[in-house]
Amino acid sequence: MKWRYSLRWKRPGPCPGEPELASEVVEAGKPAPESVMSRWVAGAGYAVCVDFLCERPVIRWSDERKAATRRRNLASRVNRIAPLFADELIERELTARPDYFRGKSPR
Question: What is the pTM of this model?
Answer without folding.
Answer: 0.55
